[in-house]
Each structure stands twice: as structure tokens, then as C-alpha cells.
């Protein structure tokens, strides 16, 4: 990557962070455009959270350049933070306070006037679908409600950039979808979203563009559909023959698809037409215990690039 593009609100060049002998972030470069939803997709320990902490100005980089809205977060921390909303991996709400008070007291850290904060708190509770919980104690909320409150709190200062570190980890499917809906709405309002995730469906749903990160390095960059087109076939046939037999039948699957991948519990056949490939498997006298045809996903991209599953 050359110079930062003119509409980049975040620009990183050869960004590196080492902890002693361990290099957590290993010379990554990327730009995030205004209004974009940008993702860092990779397994736990890939360096995603470390990158987010450097953007947020709470962790100093070892080397490389980083600018947020044209400013260096290490040199102009308060000015940068005025533009940022931060949703950390772990909810750090004040459990003793009431829901609405969490928003108002947090806003005081930004020096915002109380009259404004009371009005803003009500707007944010409506946005987070928590109006009826305004007077409840935080420790009485469900996990999904706490996550929505954490996001609402991060919006108190009307940030132009929202950093979300693993926003839906630990939530049930329904709570995740409610949260996704809230994030879509923020994007529609022009907020730039930067999120880390190890859920490929979340990355596909929320990200206009993403970088695939593994062991502190960028393995690929692009939109989810472009990455899938570039690194995978259109469909995937998943076959289970039983743990002991998966490896044994691999040689008999030659030609039923473009390529095969052996995982501990199944064989993946990458193919343009999954149903056709399944017919070929059966025509060869092979009898899988289970079979599933699905469209290719970012999980397949990650597997192709690293030889491992995202959830390893």
C-alpha cells in the first residue's frame, strides 16, 4: 500500500506491536474509509484486539505509522478519543449503577453538560431498545442487554468511528441479530464501524471490506464476496464418513470436485455444484454417514489461506 487514500479516517502502515519476544502484530498496513464497515477476521490470538487497542490509543505501537482522522493516537490521544466510541471485548459497565445513570456518568468523562446528557441518554436507551430498563440495575440485565448498553454508552459523545472488539461473543443467536440490526442502523447514519470477530457469518453480514488476520499478519484483504470468489469454489460439499474413515476415503474422492480438504471430523469437497458432486460420491459406492451442501463462506477462505479452521 502506498500513501493513505484521501478519505481514509484510519490509516496504518507497517503497524507492529511486540511484547518481549512475541510479535502480536507483525507489520500490517490498511486504510479504513469514512462510513465504511471494516472488519478484522481471524482466530483468537491473531493480533486483532492488540490492533484495536493501538487504534484506541491505549496501547503504544512498537513501530510503524498510525493515524486516526489525520492524528497520531499516541501524540493526540484526547483529540482522537473525542472522535471514537469504544466497545471492549468484556463489558465494563458499572454494575452498581442504574442503566440510565451508566450513560450519564460516562458522558461526564467527556465534559459534556448534564442537561445534554439526560436528553442523549434517553435517545440512546431508545436506540438500544432499553427504555423500559432505564431504572433497572445493570446486574439485572441479560447478556444481550448489557452488550446493547455498552454500545449505547460508547455513542454518548456522538463518535464518528466506533471500535467493536468481538461484539457478539457469548450471545445467543437472537441477541446477536438484534445487535447486528443496531449496528446496521449506525452504519446508515454514517458512523464508521471497525470490528474484530472470529465469526465468519458476522463478518459476512456486517463488513463492507475486511482483512483476514493470522499470527499478526494480513493474509488477504477485500469484500467478503470477492474473498470467497478468489479463494474458494461456489459451493462446498461436507461429508462425514466417521472419524476413522474420513482420511481413508480421501483418495477415492479424486475428481468429484475442484479440490478436497480433510478436517478432523469431515471431508470438504470444493465444487461448482454440490449436488452433482454428491451424486458422483454415491456413484462411486461411497456412503457418507452425513452430507451437506452449502455455499462457500469466509471460513473456507481462512482454511485455504492458513490450513486451519477459524475456530481452532
TrEMBL record:
Residues 10-240 form the ABC transporter domain. InterPro entries: AAA+_ATPase, ABC_transporter-like_ATP-bd, ABC_transporter-like_CS, ABC_transporter_ATP-binding, P-loop_NTPase. Its main location: membrane. One of its GO terms (molecular function) is ATP binding. The keyword Zinc does not apply. It is found in: Cell membrane. Keywords: Antibiotic resistance, ATP-binding, Nucleotide-binding, Transport. This is ATP-binding cassette domain-containing protein. It comes from Sinomonas flava.
